[in-house]
Automatic annotation (TrEMBL):
Residues 1-23 form the signal peptide. Keywords: Cell cycle, Cell division, Cell outer membrane, Lipoprotein, Membrane, Palmitate, Signal. Its main location: membrane. Part of the Tol-Pal system, which plays a role in outer membrane invagination during cell division and is important for maintaining outer membrane integrity. InterPro entries: Bact_OuterMem_StrucFunc, OMP_bac, OmpA-like, OmpA-like_sf, Pal, Pal_lipo_C. It holds the Pfam family OmpA. Residues 57-171 form the OmpA-like domain. It is a lipid-anchor. NCBIfam families: Pal_lipo. GO terms for cellular component: cell outer membrane. This is Peptidoglycan-associated lipoprotein.
Amino acid sequence: MMKKSFLALAVAIAVAGCSSVKLDDVPVENKNPTGVTQPPATQSQVAPVVSDAVEGSKDGPQNVARLIYFDFDSYVVKPEFQSLLDAHAKFMKANPNRRVAIEGHTDDRGGREYNLALGQRRSEAVRRALGLLGVSDNQIEAVSFGKEKPAAPGSDEAAWAKNRRAEIVYR
């Protein structure tokens, strides 16, 4: 009985001791840095970007399509797109400071990795065709979006045919 009384008294003293600590009285030090100076403003050494000097050529050749369509599961450039490639190659050779991205796309059939690889093959096929026509390799970038950016929604042959493409995008 005596042990229980001591234990109860000890617990009461411990609880009373803990409640007497005032948390708001803890001194707070100001840790703001003093004596720190701002670096002096400097003149930028970066040259300004000069936009295209050739007026009207920002969008590439006028009245020339930029889409090349492919057959199902194919990355062969059809002969019907030869004049399109000729026009873009002529424009690129006349404007050696211009760059293009050839974006390869696929329809939504097939797995993600397969479609990315097929889109890359399509963009590389167009890149090679432009290279054979004399366009410098450093003017062309081949990228693949696979099935991620469909041109036409839907799951029928009309939509799939529009999505199997390579787009020539001027930068």
